[in-house]
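User: Structure please.
Assistant: Input sequence and predicted structure:
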Amino acid sequence: MNLAQAIERYPAHLGGRGISVETQSKYLYELRQLSRLMVNTDWPTYAALADWQSSFPALTKTTVHHKVTAIKAFFRWAVDMGYITTDPAEKLVVPKRPKTLPETLTDSQVDYLLHKWEPYYMKRDGFLIDRDKALVKVFIMTGLRRAELTALNVGDVSLEGRAVAVRSGKGDRDRTVIIPKNVIPELRALTQRREYDEPLFVGKGGERLAPNAINEMFHRKISNALGRRVTPHMCRHAYATYLVNRGVPLHQIQTQLGHSSLTTTQIYLHATQREVRDSMDVLDDLA
């Protein structure tokens, strides 16, 4: 079993652990990149991997963290499978990720997207205007991840129960997300007269809307409208920050977001505390 063959077998292991297809693709990308660099050896040595890690001086610590974490996990698995006897990545040091607060949308930007934003399309594609406006509203009002939203089927939406069933979310965890009343009209329009197993959001040809298509829409339509880079995940951050600011208990927000740990959810509490500290700077005028 050589390195390239082991890499191609790795996705089955990841899938068995409940790792999403999107995350599997990211791991495979890193491993295949590494494999191309190791053309002169079957399996790399620690020295070769150390040289590989030192070749990223221009990358952020977060990016290197993801790369090294993926590589170390793969080689641990290779040892467990008996493909190699020693782990050449064992001594690689994973850089700590800087504790950065999530980038989000301002209240005025959220208000604009919900009530004033009007995406432009050619007349023949006019139906995409309502689709995009509904998509953005669902993002902001539910905090769903991009992959979770694109995986939704018509039958996952319960208008009577005001809920969306998220199946195989991050970590392969299912959950139910409560939806506010003001997003019901958009969801009703998306679900009426459609089959239970049809994708909720579709492209021009009626196919399931792909995550990359959503990225493109955010880049071309929303980022240009707001004059700043906007991603789908920023809608999720805006959703969580809004709930924290309104006093919703963290454990309830954790459930809605699908976080496995409350620690992950607490970062939004830190973000709002920073805003409070910044606001309190006005008291300096009293000194």
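The chain has a mean pLDDT of 87.
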